[in-house]
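User: Let's play a game. I give you a shape written as tokens, and you guess the letters that built it. Ready? Here's round one.
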């Protein structure tokens, strides 16, 4: 297994996002991605999920609207313990030099320090968390580029 710290920087190639801060959280079951303006639109009888990633004050924010018909809805327990329905998407994440599949629930994380949370479902069997460390993937990437 690969050692990962309490925080790291990840890339989301599908959304052209590079070096985005992620919190590693073994207390969270799933992974979450900060989104806003999340709405369902109908197009030719199909539901299309439309959303924006990051906040306008984030340095990587580009005011892009992303659209997908490949989404689901799940009931998840939020950080404050409430059950809520969220949209989920599958995408690729680039971490430690590898692209991997990940499922994100889309939620408003603007009050959180990190726009991405990586939970146990993603971490399990692949990563050992050392809470004294951070940005291990990002540091390794700089030395190998």
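Assistant: Ready! My guess for every position:
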């Amino acid at each position: 297994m690969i050692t990962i710290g309490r925080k790291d920087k990840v890339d989301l190639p599908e959304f052209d996002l590079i070096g985005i801060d992620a919190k590693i959280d073994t207390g969270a079951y799933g992974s979450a991605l900060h989104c806003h303006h999340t709405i369902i639109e109908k197009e030719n009888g199909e539901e299309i999920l439309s959303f924006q990633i990051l906040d306008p004050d984030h340095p990587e924010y580009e005011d892009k609207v992303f659209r997908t018909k490949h989404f689901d809805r799940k009931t998840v327990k939020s950080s404050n313990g409430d059950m809520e329905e969220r949209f989920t998407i599958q995408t690729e994440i680039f971490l430690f030099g590898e692209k991997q599949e990940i499922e994100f629930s889309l939620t408003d994380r603007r009050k959180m320090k990190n726009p991405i949370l990586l939970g146990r479902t993603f971490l399990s069997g692949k990563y050992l968390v050392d809470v004294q460390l951070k940005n291990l993937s990002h540091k390794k990437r700089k030395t190998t580029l």
